[in-house]
């Protein structure tokens, strides 16, 4: 009992505190490299969507790229071959949907 009362009298090693406005601004900076800049998760030829999402860095897109593009290449059996995610201009997003590449037995 004496040991427990002695340990209880020591202050904790760290003191909890509420976040301040300064902390929030530091954690969530509102500055971008250019006006209306935004981020996309990016990966090139990851093995599957899980691997891409797990390791993809969230990077600011360069000027002229206003969209996040995802391309998933699969075997016709549904097995993943590769996943690519990157920043692209609008022109790269006009053709959407699945495409079948018959001579390679892939779906894009």
UniProtKB/TrEMBL annotation:
User: Is Lipoprotein tagged as a keyword?
Assistant: yes
Mind telling me which InterPro entries this protein's record contains? LYPD6-like, Snake_toxin-like_sf
**Biological process according to GO:** cell differentiation; positive regulation of canonical Wnt signaling pathway
Q: Where in the cell is it found?
A: Cell membrane
The record gives the membrane topology as: Lipid-anchor; GPI-anchor
Naming one, the record's GO cellular component terms include:
side of membrane
One Pfam family, short name please? UPAR_LY6_2
Look up the signal peptide feature and give its range.
1-16
**Keyword list, A-Z:** Cell membrane, Disulfide bond, Glycoprotein, GPI-anchor, Lipoprotein, Membrane, Signal
Q: Which GO terms describe its molecular function?
A: acetylcholine receptor inhibitor activity
Top-rank lineage group of the source organism? Eukaryota
Protein name as it appears in the record:
LYPD6 protein
Q: Could you tell me which species this protein originates from?
A: Zapornia atra (Henderson crake)
The major lineage groups are: Eukaryota, Metazoa, Chordata, Craniata, Vertebrata
């Amino acid at each position: 009992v004496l040991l427990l009362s002695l340990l209880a009298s020591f202050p904790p090693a760290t003191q909890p505190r509420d976040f301040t406005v300064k902390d929030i601004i530091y954690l969530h900076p509102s500055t971008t490299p250019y006006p209306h800049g935004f981020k996309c998760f990016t990966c090139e030829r990851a093995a599957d969507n899980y691997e891409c999402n797990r390791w993809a860095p969230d990077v600011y897109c360069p000027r002229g790229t206003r969209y996040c593009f995802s391309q998933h290449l699969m075997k016709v059996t549904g097995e993943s071959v590769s996943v690519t995610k990157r920043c692209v201009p609008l022109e790269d997003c006009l053709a959407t949907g699945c495409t079948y590449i018959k001579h390679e037995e892939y779906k894009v």
